[in-house]
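Quick one, probably user error.
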């Protein structure tokens, strides 16, 4: 078991975000990976920065990174590994949008314990470690902290109306629509891993995802949400665990929730 300094992980996320914005300003081409997803030089450069930094922090801990896995570099991940998405939301980034994040997480015994999510184009920063979660604003041009880290926590009480966060795309599929209607919820749209962070910050109660995602899409946000007092479950109510190398690191749906009342309501809504 290790207990890295959260400040070191934040510095790495900011450095990766700085590189992403440099690439964006210079212009770039996009490529299509074997699985049909998009990759850019920004993804690759950001992951290289993170991988090198994590190797300095914990040289014996393997890293599961989106681009490394796409290149066939898939280490054995036991009880301890890093889970990284250097640019979550590449498709939107390639189109010139601002809704993308850098995600870094440490997974211990199948559970994310430390996480950082940084949105380079908006300056939003979220981070968490066991017992404490934080948010801050950063200067976009320099990727430096503009405000001190402020403690955040998930909603503790049952609200008068469930606040449900979803992406513009998945939030409009039939199953998500049924889920929202069953709960008579109010929907808020957000992008990439910021959705987890809104639940962690007490701005939403539930984040359902009924389609497949990769572990690196969820691990950092999951760590922050756990640190803030919430959690994530699979669609059958089981805990979400990480490190499924044989399964291609795929998560086949989940619901992030702020508290036990929200968890029960989600399970009831899914029947």
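Nope, works fine. Designed sequence:
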């Amino acid at each position: 078991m290790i207990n890295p300094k959260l400040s070191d992980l934040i510095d790495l996320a900011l450095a990766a975000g700085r590189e992403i914005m440099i690439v964006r300003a210079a212009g770039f081409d996009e490529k299509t990976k074997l699985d049909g997803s998009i990759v850019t030089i920004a993804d690759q450069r950001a992951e290289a920065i993170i991988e090198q930094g994590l190797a300095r922090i914990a040289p014996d801990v393997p890293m599961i990174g989106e681009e490394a896995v796409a290149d066939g570099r898939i280490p054995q991940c036991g009880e301890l590994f890093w889970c990284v998405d250097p640019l979550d939301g590449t498709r939107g980034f390639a189109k010139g949008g601002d809704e993308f994040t850098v995600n870094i997480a440490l997974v211990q015994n199948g559970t994310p314990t430390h996480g950082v999510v940084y949105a380079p184009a908006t300056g939003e920063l979220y981070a968490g470690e066991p017992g404490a979660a934080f948010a801050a604003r950063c200067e976009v041009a320099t990727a430096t902290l503009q405000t001190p880290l402020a403690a955040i926590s998930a909603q503790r009480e049952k609200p008068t109306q469930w606040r449900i966060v979803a992406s513009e795309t998945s939030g409009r599929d039939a199953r998500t629509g049924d889920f929202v209607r069953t709960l008579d919820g109010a929907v808020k749209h957000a992008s990439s891993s910021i959705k987890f962070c809104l639940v962690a910050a007490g701005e939403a109660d539930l984040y359902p995802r009924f389609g497949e995602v990769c572990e690196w899409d969820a691990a950092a946000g999951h760590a922050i949400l756990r640190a803030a007092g919430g959690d994530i479950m699979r669609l059958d109510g089981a805990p979400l665990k990480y490190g499924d190398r044989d399964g291609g690191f795929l998560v086949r749906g989940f619901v992030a929730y702020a508290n036990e009342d929200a968890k029960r309501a989600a399970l009831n809504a899914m029947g």
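The longest strand covers residues 80-88.
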